[in-house]
Amino acid sequence: MLKTVLCLSCFTSCALAFNPSLVPPRPTRMLSGLSMQTRSVPVSTSSSPTGTPTKSPLTKELFAKLDVDQSGTIDADELAEALGGSSDPLFEIFSLMARADLNRDGKIDYAEYERLMAMDKFSDENGGNLFVRNAIKFGMLRPDSVLADCVMVGNKGFDPLNCATSMEALKNYREAELKHGRLAMLAAAGWPISELLQPYAAKALNLPVLLAGGDKAPSLLNGGLDKVNPMFFMGLIIFTATIESIALRKPRGEDWVPGDLGFDPLNLYTDSPASVQRDLELKELNNGRLAMLAITGYVLEEFLTKASVVNDTPFLFKSFL
What we know:
Blueprint: H1 2-16, H2 60-66, E1 73-75, H3 76-82, H4 89-100, E2 107-109, H5 110-122, H6 130-137, H7 167-205, H8 230-249, H9 274-305, H10 309-312, H11 314-317
Antiparallel strand pairs: 1-2
């Protein structure tokens, strides 16, 4: 019976996904929050002053409780078990799937659940993402863009040139963004460290100082690249080509995650709950974006001031030495 309900939901999802008011009024409580009374999921069932049971708010902890098999998704069977005390569980499952299941696969993954939490907070009209709605409002994003209702982590709705013409294109852009962000994080740390430590290392090893002008990191604008051993650039090219070949060999099916190279020696990501994984993805993305701005700032600052960033901002880079 549950499978039949889910199939029917696919045909009506377009009408219900962002306008739950189209669902005929029923005496049961709608699942904008999980209003459950159940033995298997210990959710608060406190009552309002009028005696009406209050809804359980959608939280990360509730997702973990609903995901009984720890698969990272909530399916219809798990919802049916959780809604055992509801007077009309099939209708509530149908309503929830219509709102939350964006890709219509009959399951709610954590990204879709997070969107549902935001919809409860900001309303269904905003689609759970105020950044996207504001970008559309101010003309920075086309209403029919693939970003308009996308649960990809870090979606701020910024695509004024409409580069992301499809989900495949969006994933390719995200892959490129992550690669540049990772490289920028290394560069943002390595640039000032080289300016601070290279003179000391050169003196200790009796080697020449390679900093441009005696204090700036070698670069196209600063100059000094001719002083660097060509073998360094050779090794760098071989290393990056090896990493890129690993990425290109990975299959890119529907479940392909941009930037996932399978590198997690400490199991900080692999063995973590879905909510923690999404949080780590967002942190990496945000730090990468910040690093790209930072390294660009380093280059422009040194080009314009003709001084190194560590000398221009000693309170940041020399206070600990």
